[in-house]
Structure formats: structure tokens, C-alpha cells
TrEMBL record:
Statement: the UniProt record of this protein carries the keyword Transmembrane helix: yes
SUPFAM superfamilies: MetI-like
GO biological process, one term: transmembrane transport
Domain ABC transmembrane type-1: 78-267
Family as reported in the entry's similarity comment: Belongs to the binding-protein-dependent transport system permease family.
Stretches that traverse the bilayer: 21-43, 82-103, 115-135, 147-167, 188-213, 233-266
Short name of any one Pfam family annotated for the protein: BPD_transp_1
Localization (cell): Cell membrane
Topology in membrane: Multi-pass membrane protein
GO cellular component, one term: plasma membrane
Annotated protein name in UniProt: Carbohydrate ABC transporter permease
Organism: Paenibacillus piri
Length: 282
């Protein structure tokens, strides 16, 4: 009788994973279909792209990409986005790791207050008028290092939050033994602690790089010269010029999203593991 009851319950248990899997596929299609629509229309002629459907093109127009790269200044936009994204990611990850290490190891009331100040930065809105005014007064407006510092200031609170939770899992005995061996503070951090932070560091690098690459509003306010435009503003400017050529517009969107999609695909494993480790160990 027990075996029969178990055999009756098994089919019911098997249905739920199938239903969940189908639900996940339906949710994935909500993202994949628009991506496929943009990709397939980027290879059509202007007349075919105006229909904006999922039909395959009669002739694949790979020249659309060459035209976009030439007329849309995409090479320059890629260079600008790489400078901004890599620079802000490097500054954010380095200083956030150092700051989180100090806040985690020295549990004073002042450091606790500073940590809460960073947490407030996760939810505090950006005052664009005051920010732009300060950047103009400090000669940071319309410069690469200005927007790198701005991105870093916005991304540091979340990055400190991730590093702080992960560093708490690192035993303090490592600090004590290293100090007994003659390590100074910077040597202790870079030689002993920082290599142990590799999972959460990769997570922070991926998140911050993708956020900086996809940012549109801040460059729109900070830059008033097209020579400094990142890829997001290059697409915006190209769309204003070639609004009737949807095949070329779709080609610019593909060129803009392709690098970040590749970064996410190859770094997805590290992204999930780092987020989980930081949450559990914190």
C-alpha cells in the first residue's frame, strides 16, 4: 500500500518542474524575441525593415554594419565607452574593497556610521542640478575623468556593501599572523586579503562595467561635445539623424548591446557565485 501511494504521488511531483520550466521559457521569450527582432531587422533593406516583423530578409545586408560604423562614429564611441566603463570600474572596485576592509575590521562607532552612510547611498536619488553645478565649478564638466569620478561615486555604495559582507567571512587571524610577520597595512591588504576577494571582485567588476556601459542619462547631461559620446549617446544621435532607416538603427543597437551581452554570458557564472557568496557569508 505504501508503494502504491508513492507511485501515485510521483506523477504529481513531476508536473511542477515541467510547469516551472515552461514558465521560465515563456519569460525568456519576452527578452529573446525583441533581441531577435532587432538582430534580424538589422540585416534587411530599408523597405523590409520598415515592416518590423520576424521574417527572414530576402538578402542579408551586412553592409548595414559597415555603413553604421562609418557614419555613426561607432569606433570612437566604443573607445569612449571603454575608457569610461573601465576607468570607473577600476576606481570603484579598488577603493570600495579598501574602504570595506577598514570598515569591516575596525568596528568603531564612527566606522559604523560611515557604513550606514554608504547604505543610504543605495537609495538616495541623484540631484542632477547640484551635481552638474559642482562639476562645472571643479572643471570636471565635459571631461572623461569627471564622468569617471561621477560614476564611481554612484557605484561605490553598492560595491562597498558587497565587499563588506564578503570580508566578514575572512578570518581575522590572517591579519594578526601577517602583522606578526612584518606586513604593513597596504601589504596586508594587497598580498593577503585582496586575493581572497576574487569571487566578489569579479562580481563587482561585471556589475559596474555593465552599468557604466549602459548608462544614458549621465553622459547626456555631462557631455555637450559629440567627440566624448559613449555608445549609448552615439545610438541616440544616430537615431535622430536616420530615424526613417530602421535597418541602420537596429544595426547600431546590435553593435551597442553585443559587447555587454558577451560580457554577461562569459561572466554569468562568476556573477551569480559572487553575489551568493557575499550574501551568505555576510
Amino acid at each position: 500500500m505504501v508503494r502504491q501511494a508513492r507511485s501515485v504521488r510521483r506523477p504529481g511531483r513531476r508536473r511542477f518542474p515541467v510547469v516551472k520550466e515552461l514558465l521560465m521559457w515563456l519569460l525568456a521569450l519576452l527578452i529573446l524575441i525583441p533581441l531577435f527582432l532587432v538582430a534580424i531587422n538589422s540585416l534587411k533593406t530599408e523597405a523590409e525593415a520598415d515592416l518590423m516583423n520576424l521574417e527572414l530578409p530576402k538578402q542579408f545586408m551586412f553592409d548595414n554594419y559597415a555603413n553604421v560604423i562609418k557614419t555613426g562614429k561607432m569606433v570612437q564611441a566604443y573607445r569612449n565607452s571603454l575608457i569610461i566603463s573601465a576607468g570607473s570600474t577600476l576606481v570603484t572596485s579598488l577603493f570600495s574593497a579598501m574602504g570595506a576592509f577598514v570598515l569591516s575590521r575596525r568596528r568603531t562607532k564612527l566606522n559604523r556610521l560611515i557604513y550606514y552612510y554608504f547604505i543610504i547611498g543605495l537609495i538616495a536619488p541623484v540631484n542632477f542640478i547640484a551635481t552638474i553645478k559642482v562639476m562645472q565649478m571643479t572643471q570636471l564638466f565635459n571631461t572623461f575623468h569627471g564622468i569617471i569620478l561621477l560614476y564611481s561615486a554612484l557605484m561605490i555604495p553598492f560595491t562597498v556593501f558587497l565587499f563588506y559582507g564578503f570580508i566578514q567571512s575572512v578570518p581575522k587571524e590572517l591579519d594578526e599572523s601577517a602583522m606578526m610577520d612584518g606586513c604593513r597595512s597596504l601589504q596586508l591588504f594587497f598580498r593577503i586579503i585582496f586575493p581572497l576577494l576574487l569571487p566578489v571582485t569579479i562580481t563587482c567588476v561585471l556589475i559596474n562595467f555593465m552599468n557604466a556601459w549602459n548608462e544614458f542619462i549621465l553622459p547626456l547631461y555631462v557631455f555637450n561635445k559629440s567627440d566624448y559620446y559613449p555608445v549609448t549617446l552615439a545610438v541616440y544621435s544616430f537615431y535622430g539623424t536616420f530615424i526613417s532607416s530602421w535597418n541602420l538603427v537596429c544595426a547600431t543597437i546590435v553593435l551597442t548591446t553585443l559587447p555587454i551581452v558577451l560580457v554577461y554570458i562569459f561572466g554569468q557564472r562568476y556573477l551569480i557565485s559572487g553575489m551568493t557568496a557575499g550574501a551568505v557569508k555576510g
